[in-house]
Amino acid sequence: MDSILVTGNGPLNGQIPIAGAKNACLTLMPATLLSEEPLTLTNAPRLSDIKTMTALLQSLGAEVSSLQDGQVQAMSSHDLTSQTADYEIVRKMRASNLVLGPLLARFGHAVVSLPGGCAIGARPMDLHVEGLEALGAEIELKDGYLHAKAPGGLKGGVHEMRFASVGATENIVMAATLAKGTTVLKNAAREPEIVDLVECLRKMGAQIAGEGTSTIEIQGVDRLHGATHQVVIDRIELGTYMLAPAICGGEVELLGGRMRLVESFAAKLDAAGVSVEETDKGLKVARKNGRVRAVDVVTEPFPGFPTDLQAQMMALMCTAEGTSVLEERIFENRFMHAPELVRMGADIEVHGGTATVTGVERLKGAPVMATDLRASVSLILAGLAAEGETVVSRVYHLDRGYEHVVRKLEGVGAKIERIKGQ
Ligand code: EPZ
């Protein structure tokens, strides 16, 4: 397994391009199952999760070709041969469950493996099931698989989700596009990736209103047609790299960044003493003066502070002046980066869903282990500011969500290299 060697090397300066959003692409790709006409996505990120989704769609019989070295996904599900998403693929990536709604809507049946737990939590699918049952689906769990059917087709309905689940919102909205009648989905998730999905579905002929708010209304249509759609930029990659100049000093411009995608995150950085300025090319980020100040963080559904930036923010708070309390309200086990940061000299106490971080002047480089996607990049950020060398192992986690990390950070002056594993 490869690892990444980072050496603290002072302030960073320059520009970092931000790629298309992994979490948008992972819901846009299954949307191809809703139509027998081709769907083409541009600005797709080149990530292992996209390859996993490609393999899943191909296992159903869809044609998926990655053009222009992966930045374009041209897909067609004209001749599907299966409606079963196998455990072997789903267990590797939870987002595989996003084929459930589209398969059910287009074919009236689907068999999708439950994803099983992952490092950050149990991650059940009860909210997906409840929403699809509200559209008339009959779903039962057998041998670890959800067996879903809608013999007479799905019917629109009014449904209020118990929690604003991103994936459940995506599955229900995609299914509702082909249901008979109108669906009103309440307490819907408001993430920009959902807005991007709806914009793509609308290009395919879907009739949807309210995306980005808590109530989404879908008027079912008989069929959807093909489309071409550009994937929205990745607000989590954007937020991650905004933290690089925040933790190291210097000034970095994140190309493609837009403030609307990271409002609450940028507000926290501002309170910590980091300036974020929107330019015509992106977001320019710089530390206002010396050490950042400790700020408290509570993770919430969008537009609140994103759980996917909690680990990275913790790295910054490890070097802040004062004490910061980070509360993780979305996942039950998302502090696995904390003990690794403690190995680097951080002062962190974790009690249940709350981590109390007392900043230290400087972290010390150390060998550390990535435990999940966002933890991996949190350790790299810590290593950028630490004294000496940090080796982050198990970087296959990193490859799921960040393309060209070494090249992007080297480009702004970081001392970083990837070491090939044995
Ligand atoms: C999406 O996961 C993202 N993944 C996650 O990003 C992100 O952390 C999460 O939304 C929250 O923003 C993709 O978009 C591919 P949820 P998702 O359904 O849809 C519980 C990353 O790092 N829940 O909003 O799975 C669940 O256990 C990944 O890129 C139920 O209880 O998230 C969790 O505690 C990690 N029952 C909470 O809700 C359900 O049926 C949020 O889950 C569904 C979810």
Number of domains: 2
At the first level of CATH, the class of the largest domain is Alpha Beta
Note the beta-strand portion.
25-35%
Radius of gyration: 21 Å
CATH topology of the largest domain: UDP-n-acetylglucosamine1-carboxyvinyl-transferase, Chain
Topology at a glance:
Layout: E1 3-7, E2 12-17, H1 22-28, E3 39-42, H2 48-59, E4 63-67, E5 72-76, E6 84-85, H3 87-90, H4 100-107, E7 109-113, H5 126-133, E8 138-142, E9 145-149, E10 158-160, H6 166-176, E11 182-186, H7 192-203, E12 207-209, E13 215-219, E14 227-230, H8 235-248, E15 250-255, H9 263-272, E16 274-278, E17 282-287, E18 297-298, H10 310-317, E19 323-327, H11 337-343, E20 347-351, E21 354-358, E22 367-369, H12 373-385, E23 389-393, H13 396-401, H14 405-410, E24 415-419
Parallel strand pairs: 2-15, 3-14, 6-7, 10-11, 18-19, 22-23
Antiparallel strand pairs: 1-23, 1-24, 3-5, 4-5, 7-9, 8-9, 11-13, 12-13, 15-17, 16-17, 19-21, 20-21
The structure holds ligand EPZ.
Question: What would you note in describing this structure?
Answer:
With 422 residues, this protein is an alpha/beta fold. It has 2 domains: 3-19 and 233-419, Enolpyruvate transferase domain (UDP-n-acetylglucosamine1-carboxyvinyl-transferase, Chain, Alpha-beta prism), CATH 3.65.10.10; 22-230, Alpha-beta prism (UDP-n-acetylglucosamine1-carboxyvinyl-transferase, Chain), CATH 3.65.10.10. It is built from 14 helices and 24 strands. The protein has a 4-stranded mixed sheet with strand order 22-23-1-24. Strands 2-15-17-16 form a 4-stranded mixed sheet. β12 (207-209) and β13 (215-219) form a beta hairpin. α6 (166-176) runs parallel beside α7 (192-203) and α8 packs parallel to α10 (310-317). It is elongated. Bound molecules: ligand EPZ. Ligand EPZ binds at residues 23, 26, 94-95, 121-128, 163, 165-168, 307-308, 330-331, 373-374, 401. Ligand EPZ is lined by residues 23, 26, 94-95, 121-128, 163, 165-168, 307-308, 330-331, 373-374, 401.
